[in-house]
Amino acid sequence: MARNPLIEAIHEARYDLETCARHERSGRQRRLDELLRQALDRGSSKATPDHLLDALFDDYREFKRGKKQQEWARLPRGA
Amino acid sequence: MEAVSSKQNWGPAAQVILGPDPPLALYGEAVVWFHKVELFRREEEQRMYRQTPVPEDLALHKELLLRLIEDGEHLGRLIDQHGFLSNAEGITADDLKATARNLRADYRGWHEPMPAAERSQVLREVFDGPKPAH
After folding, report:
1. Best mutation site among B75, B85, B92, B123 for testing chain A: the one with the most A CBs within 10 Å?
2. Do A10 and B123 touch, CB atoms closer than 8 A?
3. A59-62 CB contacts, 8 Å cutoff, 24+ apart
4. Which residue of A11, A41, B34, B47 is most buried, as measured by CB atoms within 10 A?
5. What are B110-131's pLDDT values in tens digits?
6. Whole-prediction pTM value?
């Protein structure tokens, strides 16, 4: 999928929600909800925020794999 | 007759089942649940991202994820009824619910994927649709 700044921001927010400290989760959820709402408001879709997340999941999975690969590259060998 | 709270009516049964201090007990259960989610995420990274998952990985991923979601949502409902202990870590009921919601979204993504035609339509409508005038 072509890189789109709003899609990238949604992926980043979803990844942050998943990886942040426990006490930061609700704040990160609000950020993700804002971005999803922003995307839905600018388009013509009647989709819900959950539908949009679902539609983006395959792309998100590749985004997450890329993030993890960067982390693995920083780990010492054998870790 | 003077009304008494439901919990008083239930007396010992409520105390045995919920414990003498439900918000404290629920906080303890929430901490254990968060720990399970973190263990799950670590294993998920190894089995589902660092390698190509085999059918057995997918099956266990689905089973564990569903269990975590059910436990987290159940905890969220209990916390709504009984409250949540204020804690030094600053965890709130909303943090727990956000985590459960995030797991639920992952469950749908991995195990109930949106049909390709619907996905294309949603993405086209959202990202190729009319832009607001600024």
Report:
1. B123
2. no
3. A59/A1, A59/A7, A59/A11, A60/A11, A60/A14, A60/A15, A60/B109, A61/B109
4. A11
5. 999 999 999 999 999 999 865 5
6. 0.88
Length in residues, chain B:
134
**Separation CA B29–CA B10 (nearest Å):** 23
Q: What does the alpha-carbon distance between residue B72 and residue B75 come to, in Å, rounded to a whole number?
A: 5
**Runs of H (alpha helix) within B1-92:** 6-18, 22-44, 55-82
Residue in this structure with the two tokens 């060998």, named with its chain if needed: A77
Chain A, nearest residue to B134 by Cα: A42
Integer Cα distance of B100 and B106 in angstroms:
10
Question: Contact at 8 Å (CB) between B66 and B107?
Answer: yes
In contact, B52 and A61? CB cutoff 8 Å: no
Ranges of residues in chain B whose predicted pLDDT is under 50:
1-3, 132-134
Note whether ipTM > 0.85 here: yes
